[in-house]
Structure formats: C-alpha cells, structure tokens
Write a structure and sequence with these properties.
With 288 residues, the protein is α/β, with parallel strands linked by helices. The protein contains 6 helices and 12 strands. 26% of the residues lie in helices and 27% in strands. Helix 2 runs parallel beside helix 5 and helix 3 crosses helix 6. 46% of the residues are buried.
C-alpha cells in the first residue's frame, strides 16, 4: 500500500524523489543562500533579479501549503528567494525543511514589512534588527480557571542575529538606499498581528492597552514589530552543528504606529526592490 508520506519523526518526505511535506522541495532545489519574504508578490519581484541556472531557467516551485521558491544565479552565486507566508509556524516549517534539503552551511536573510514603534523612523525606510525579542499572548491568563496573577503577555529575552551577515546587510542597504533610509534597532516578534502587537479590538478580550508601553520600557531601542524574525534568529542559533545557519533580518517600515503615517505604494515597491537587491548582493558576498 502506498503511504502519503514516509517517516513519522525528523522531517518526513513524500513521493520519489522524496519531497518535504510543506515546502514541496527535494534535495538540491534550494540554494544555501536564501532571501525569505512574506508574500508571493515580493518573491516575484526579487526573482526578477535572478539569472538562469545551468538548466536554462530559474527554478520555480509553488507548494500546496503556500510556499513559493525561486532558485537561480545572482552575482556568481546560487541564491533562492522564498515566500513563506506569515507567523512563527511558517518560519519554523521553512527553516527545518530548508535545512533538510540543503547540504552545507546556510545563510538566510528576511525582508519583511511592518509597523514601526519609534516616531523618528520614517515610513519607507528599512530597519535592520540587531536583536529580537518574542511577545506572546499568555493563553493561561485568559482561561477563567487559571489564577489571575499571570500576566496577559510574556516578553522574552533578546535573541541575536549573525553579526557579520548583519553588518554586511547594513552596508549593502546603505549603499543602495542612502544612509538616511536605513535604521537599526531591536525587533519585536509577536504571535499575532492583533493582540500581541497591542492593537485595540473591542470584539475580543485582549487586555493589551499597556503592552506597547511595557515593550518600550523593557527594550527602549524597540523599532519594529512583526511576526517572524525571532523564530529565524532562534532557530538559526539552535541549528546543529552550531554556526551552520546564519541569519539576519530587516523590514520595510510600512507604517509609523506613533504618528499613524502609512507608506505609499510606490515608496514601498521601491524599498522592496532596491532593498531586496541589496540583500541579495550582501548574501552573494558572504563567505559561507
Ligand atoms: C502581517 O501583515 C505580515 O506582515 C509582516 C508580518 O511579519 C506578517 O508576516 O511581514 P511580511 O510583509 O514579510 O509578511
Ligand atoms: N506586519 C505586522 O506584523 N505588523 C505591522 O504593524 C505591519 C505589518
């Protein structure tokens, strides 16, 4: 009898050649250097900078779980651009299954978008994470059976990116966009776009009116709040053997949460494409 997949532990695969279940990729289809983005339009945009592989074309595969992978050549190196969707779980699927189909050291850079927590940071700028902390809804707090003393949200310790990759990314972004368009600071990764990012919603009991204040008290350099960076840094640091997965992350600031300003369509596309190309250059330059 044919099974839907093989193996119930580690990273199961399906079919022949065995493809990982959610990315849909098999060995060799993903490069060691990867740009990770949140949606297909951004991946399509950046795939335009890739050149064909020896096969004569840029590799493209869309999985039925929402992942879209492009692999080609960039500045003399093999490089992939992958759209992974949103949240901690999708970054977990991506990094673990990517690790399973790539041999040797890897470097992963995320180009996301998000709201910015500092008034002085301009929309359309790119903010690079020099560390990331996780903000999680404490589900037990909201359970009426639980003691009331537990706080509604937890804020983690900082997790750091790869230092060399991060400085290479900053230098490449400054060269491409100009120094005034590149900021650095602490990233906050939240497990919701809503409650754990401090958005008020009268349709739910979220108890989050103090949350952004608490985050800024604990991390005064908090600059960005989005949904994947902490998982990227944490799993890269957890990957074995140590040092074989290097990570960096940045976002285009699409909104300034203190002022309410929101970026225009054209400025966003420009930052995504020029910023994205700069990240591809940084990745290609890195000695793996
Ligand atoms: C929420 O709208 C999504 O946008 C941000 C958040 O991290 C979350 O994934 O990033 P992306 O634009 O990369 O998806
Ligand atoms: N994505 C997020 O997660 N947060 C924002 O504020 C904007 C985009």
């Amino acid at each position: 009898k044919k099974s839907v997949y093989e193996g119930t532990n580690a990273v199961p695969r399906s079919g022949d050649p065995g493809r990982v279940l959610h990315l849909g990729l098999t060995d060799g289809e993903l490069a060691n250097r990867v740009i990770v983005v949140g949606h297909h339009t951004r991946a399509d945009l950046l795939s335009g900078f890739l050149e064909a592989e020896d096969s004569g074309s840029v590799f493209k595969l869309a999985s039925d779980r929402g992942f879209l992978t492009y692999t080609g050549q960039f500045a003399g190196e093999r490089l992939s651009v992958v759209s992974i969707g949103m949240g901690l779980a999708m970054m977990d699927f991506f990094l673990r299954e990517a690790r399973a189909v790539v041999k040797g050291p890897m470097a992963v850079v995320r180009l996301g978008t998000c709201g910015c927590l500092q008034e002085h940071v301009k929309v359309g700028n790119v903010s690079v994470a020099d560390g990331s902390a996780l903000v999680q809804r404490n589900y037990s707090h909201f359970d009426s059976q639980s003691p009331a003393h537990a706080k509604p949200y937890t804020i983690s310790e900082l997790c750091l990116p790869d230092a060399e990759l991060t400085s290479t990314v900053i230098a490449a972004l400054r060269e491409a966009l100009g120094g005034e368009k590149v900021n650095e600071g602490t990233n906050l990764t939240a497990d919701s776009f809503y409650s754990s990012q401090g958005r008020a919603d009268s349709a739910f009991n979220d108890e989050n009116s103090q949350l952004i204040g608490e985050v800024l008290d604990r991390y005064p350099k908090a600059i960005t709040m989005e949904m994947e960076t902490f998982q990227l840094f944490h799993l890269a640091r957890s990957c074995l053997p140590k040092g074989t997965m290097r990570a960096a992350a940045c976002v285009v600031n699409v909104a300034n949460r203190p002022t309410g300003e929101v970026v225009g369509e054209e400025a966003l596309r420009l930052a995504e494409s020029e910023g994205g190309k700069a990240l591809m250059k940084a990745l290609a330059k890195l000695q793996l």
